[in-house]
Amino acid sequence: MKLNEIKDNEGASKDRMRVGRGIGSGKGKTGGRGVKGQKARSGVAINGFEGGQMPIYRRLPKRGFNNIFASEYVTVSLGRIQTAIDAKKLDPKATIDAAALKAAGVIRRAKDGVRVLADGELTAKVTLEVAGASKAAVEKLEKAGSSIKLLVEAAEAAE
């Protein structure tokens, strides 16, 4: 057997049906679409319609809500901050805040503030001024000899 002689078994694949090519083909006239109506026309997909049965999006109960007052924070990992410091985009001696992270290209926009997460390792000694941080991130920062000032928790304590 040669590679150029390989082919499917006889009858393994069917030729495609040419639809709408005369009544004698058996798939002429309406082309397998039944008779007239919305679904016989082209470009119709009636999403969510279940033939008059109550659709699933109405059978299931509503649940939850979107809090329009919720704060949306940008998350930054410790590893990402260390990468920016290694690339000389962030100065470890200066205070690292949302504006510095934006200028370094670490974040695109500050939204309601920056929240630091504990992914990765931070070896540089830095001073962070951010909206929030996870407990693990604070522990890693203190272990590295860094200091962190949380802006949001200070604001909540003042209220």
From TrEMBL:
<keyword id="KW-0694">RNA-binding</keyword>
<keyword id="KW-0689">Ribosomal protein</keyword>
<feature type="compositionally biased region" description="Gly residues">
    <location>
        <begin position="21"/>
        <end position="35"/>
    </location>
</feature>
<dbReference type="GO" id="GO:0022625">
    <property type="term" value="C:cytosolic large ribosomal subunit"/>
</dbReference>
<dbReference type="GO" id="GO:0006412">
    <property type="term" value="P:translation"/>
</dbReference>
<feature type="domain" description="Large ribosomal subunit protein uL15/eL18">
    <location>
        <begin position="75"/>
        <end position="148"/>
    </location>
</feature>
<feature type="compositionally biased region" description="Basic and acidic residues">
    <location>
        <begin position="1"/>
        <end position="18"/>
    </location>
</feature>
<keyword id="KW-0699">rRNA-binding</keyword>
<keyword id="KW-0687">Ribonucleoprotein</keyword>
<dbReference type="Pfam" id="PF00828">
    <property type="entry name" value="Ribosomal_L27A"/>
</dbReference>
<dbReference type="InterPro" id="IPR021131">
    <property type="entry name" value="Ribosomal_uL15/eL18"/>
</dbReference>
<feature type="region of interest" description="Disordered">
    <location>
        <begin position="1"/>
        <end position="39"/>
    </location>
</feature>
<dbReference type="InterPro" id="IPR005749">
    <property type="entry name" value="Ribosomal_uL15_bac-type"/>
</dbReference>
<dbReference type="InterPro" id="IPR036227">
    <property type="entry name" value="Ribosomal_uL15/eL18_sf"/>
</dbReference>
<dbReference type="InterPro" id="IPR030878">
    <property type="entry name" value="Ribosomal_uL15"/>
</dbReference>
<protein>
    <recommendedName>
        <fullName>Large ribosomal subunit protein uL15</fullName>
    </recommendedName>
</protein>
<comment type="similarity">
    <text>Belongs to the universal ribosomal protein uL15 family.</text>
</comment>
<dbReference type="GO" id="GO:0019843">
    <property type="term" value="F:rRNA binding"/>
</dbReference>
<dbReference type="InterPro" id="IPR001196">
    <property type="entry name" value="Ribosomal_uL15_CS"/>
</dbReference>
<dbReference type="GO" id="GO:0003735">
    <property type="term" value="F:structural constituent of ribosome"/>
</dbReference>
<comment type="function">
    <text>Binds to the 23S rRNA.</text>
</comment>
<comment type="subunit">
    <text>Part of the 50S ribosomal subunit.</text>
</comment>
